[in-house]
Amino acid sequence: MEAASAVRVTIQRFGVWNIALTLISATALSVMITWLVSRNEYLAGWHDIALIGSVLIGLAGAVGLARRQPVVLRWDTERWHATDPSCSAGEIELSDLRAVIDLGGWMLLKFRAEMPQRRLRGGWIPVQQQGLESHWQSLRCAVYARGAVSIQPTALDRRAPHG
User: Is 68 in a helix, a strand, or coil?
Assistant: First the structure.
């Protein structure tokens, strides 16, 4: 098996990711509101206030996940590199990048940084085919060929099969 060709892509479209986060957040919020309304009680306890606060914090977290900065991923045929969108540290080396969810035209990639003492140790990159059409196949090949080495054909063992 041959190693994947070098590829460099800028991931800047997150439409599918944002739609999924919106649907999950809207579902969670509607379930919470339905539960509170169906109790036929007034908000009397501190636990109700804490519950509503946790829902609001969860929604704020979903909004934060939806606001993503562009990421440049680069495969140099040996290692993955990525820009760190959270700071201006430039490019970081990744020790691991793999597809956790693959829906054909959309993937959720999980990465781990090479130098864990830095602020960015790992995370998730949602990638969609839209906007990357010309590089999509190369990116997918590189993601799935991680660690692949070139294997040279060897002489076959010509012994008779055991029967």
Answer: coil
